[in-house]
Write a structure and sequence with these properties.
This protein is of the alpha+beta class and 415 residues long. The chain has 14 helices and 19 strands. It is flat.
């Protein structure tokens, strides 16, 4: 038994566990075991009945608001289990500070994270909050809404319905994002040669409607990743990277990124791939599995998402990743998704349906079709030793033929 993000050990009852109570109540259900040392050995607690009373008093007197928790004593080994539930009334403070878990340690949240917790506790999202720029114009948005919805003009009542301006006429953060002149960083595109040392182009789209930025990002893609091929008497438009996948990735980044982070969406264009870096990890409550499978929708910026949906720039909420994958359904190389705490990276490889794989690589791909498998399962099904298999998997992952999810013993591979 080892400590984890949702599990902490304490030998004795002292005030240090209260920071972790704050962290679990703020960010997700967790367990604290009293009477267990750092190595996971059960040493028990003297007088567990009194210890439970001490734990209750410390939580009740020190954590505000009151978190939801339960206590249980194992009479066999005198280990006390404290389970703290994720609360609805965040932030939960200990000595006027909020905490979160970082791997197996508990740390104080920074000012930005505290603001996010406060908004969550008020059932607000960042794009609903007032903008520091109270007024804006919406010519780009008006043009697109008129084309998509058949309206004649964009009125203040429509802007209020879309929650882009408030009832006092001042704009929200979402309103500023769609306004024609804003102070928010948007998309930063760099185009490289054969290596990152060869810098070909650099374009930054900022201080304009995110709809304008979206269009310009597509125009740049079409310049470098589409071409015409003559077939008989016809010219056929071809895409070296599926435009649908790129379009969905850019829309996803604009809709789901964390806009309170003062950095741009980065797009790195390489001869054989495009990488889209979206600031902010997954929204709270959304797992990596849910994200990759498109099973659960957690909208970080619901107002922005609603406008994109009305403009038909996204088909429906939560299907973007599935549509990116579907764009590569006939390609051997597949898109890759890297999810970190502060960024999501989508890599779109060059489509290469005629790429040649070795017999061993093809064997691994065939075994992985339509399933996820561990290294042990692949070794059993292919007959390859683990050392050889690991080398094959690294090469296939680098080539974009397979994707990897999970970590450690939970690592799984999929073609």
């Amino acid at each position: 038994m080892k400590e984890a993000r949702d599990l902490e050990f304490k030998v004795v009852v002292n005030n240090s566990f209260l920071k972790t109570v704050s962290a679990f109540a703020n960010y997700g259900k967790g367990t604290i075991l009293f009477g267990v040392d750092d190595r996971g050995n059960e040493v028990g607690v003297d007088n567990p009945k009194q210890a439970c009373l001490d734990i209750e008093h410390k939580i009740n007197d020190s954590i505000s608001p009151m978190p939801d928790y339960s206590l249980e004593v194992n009479k066999r080994n005198n280990v006390i289990t404290l389970v703290v539930e994720k609360g609805m009334d965040v932030p939960y403070l200990y000595k006027a500070k909020a905490y979160k878990r970082h791997d197996t340690s508990t740390v104080e949240v920074d000012t930005l994270e505290l603001k996010r917790l406060i908004l969550e506790g008020e059932n607000l999202t960042y794009d609903q909050t007032p903008s520091q720029n109270p007024h804006g114009t919406y010519k780009t948005l008006e043009k697109k809404l008129c084309a998509a919805l058949g309206i004649n003009a964009l009125t203040d009542d429509m802007l209020k319905t879309l929650e882009l301006i408030r009832f006092d006429g001042t704009q929200t953060i979402a309103g500023e994002l769609f306004s024609d002149d804003n102070g928010i960083l948007g998309i930063d595109i760099a185009r490289f040669g054969e290596s990152i040392d060869i810098f070909l182009d650099r374009v930054r789209f900022e201080k304009e409607s995110i709809l304008e930025q979206y269009d310009k990002a597509l125009e740049m893609f079409r310049t470098f990743y589409t071409y015409e091929e003559v077939k008989g008497a016809e010219r056929v438009r071809k895409e070296s990277i599926p435009e649908e996948a790129y379009r969905e990735a850019i829309a996803n980044a604009l809709v789901h990124r964390q806009w309170d982070v003062r950095t741009a969406i980065r797009v790195a264009m390489h001869p054989d791939r495009i990488e889209i870096y979206s600031p902010g990890g997954l929204p709270k409550g959304l797992s990596e599995k849910d994200y990759l499978e498109g099973q659960v929708v957690v909208l970080r910026n619901p107002i922005v998402a609603n406008v994109f949906f009305r403009l038909r720039l996204i088909e429906s909420f939560g299907t973007g990743i599935l549509r990116i994958k579907n764009a590569y359904r006939h390609s051997k190389k597949k898109p890759r998704f890297k999810i970190d705490e502060n960024v999501i990276v989508v890599t779109l490889p060059m489509v290469d349906e005629n790429a040649e794989l070795s017999d061993d690589e093809a064997r691994v791909i065939d075994v992985l079709r339509g399933r996820k498998a561990s290294t042990s399962e692949l070794s059993s099904d292919t007959g390859f030793g683990k050392t050889k298999l690991q080398k094959l998997l690294r090469g296939l992952e680098e080539g974009g033929y397979i994707t990897i999810s999970g970590r450690g013993r939970g690592t799984r591979y999929k073609a």
